[in-house]
Design a protein that fits this description.
Order of helices and strands: HHEHEEHEEEE
CATH class of the largest domain: Alpha Beta
CATH topology of the largest domain: Alpha-Beta Plaits
Distance between the termini: 13 Å
Radius of gyration: 21 Å
Strand order of the largest sheet: 2-3-1-4-7
CATH superfamily of the largest domain: ACT-like. Chain A, domain 2
Helix content: 25-40%
Number of strands: 7
Shape: globular
Number of helices: 4
């Protein structure tokens, strides 16, 4: 790990320390690392870097909206290569919150998210992207031993390592 030294004025340091305490950081270093990571990720997003990502797409929708739940499910099935998992929660008698875990090329994930958020009846859509590198440069499978008599090999998968 590399050590750096920065100088900031007293008022800014005090405000930063309040933020650190409120967010539960144990020290300034970890807070600064998170700020740098966040800023780098934002720069990647605005500069349109291609590559791969993992992402969380969250949105609220009214499940009474005509055919909306079916349209959302169809969109996810049509992009099954991007969609890893979906969490569905009922907020009240009318509104649901869904959180969709995605992975794939950043351009594809963004395009899919834009289409889903643009569906009539979807509200409060938000995409949180994390750029990743494909680990080791290759794919592989793992053997899973469910019982002594047989072993199964899981499908080939990639290891995705966050960039920062």
């Amino acid at each position: 790990m590399e050590r750096i030294t920065i100088s900031i004025d007293t008022a800014l340091a005090a405000e930063f320390d309040q933020l650190i305490a409120a967010r539960g950081y144990k020290n300034r270093s970890e807070a600064v690392r998170d700020l740098v990571r966040s800023h780098l990720e934002a720069a990647r997003a605005t500069e349109g870097h291609s590559g791969h990502c993992v992402a969380n797409l969250s949105y609220v929708y009214n499940h009474h909206e005509r055919d909306l739940a079916e349209r959302l499910t169809t969109l996810q099935h049509d992009q099954h290569d991007l969609t890893v998992a979906t969490l569905h929660a009922h907020l009240d008698h009318e509104n649901c919150l869904e959180s969709v875990i995605l992975r794939g090329s950043t351009a594809s994930v963004r395009a899919f998210s834009d289409v889903l958020i643009a569906e009539r009846g979807v509200r409060h859509g938000q995409l949180n992207l994390v750029a990743v590198e494909i680990g080791d440069g290759h794919t592989h499978a793992h053997a899973h031993h469910h019982d002594q008599a047989s072993s199964q090999v899981s499908p080939v998968h990639l290891h995705l390592k966050p960039k920062t």
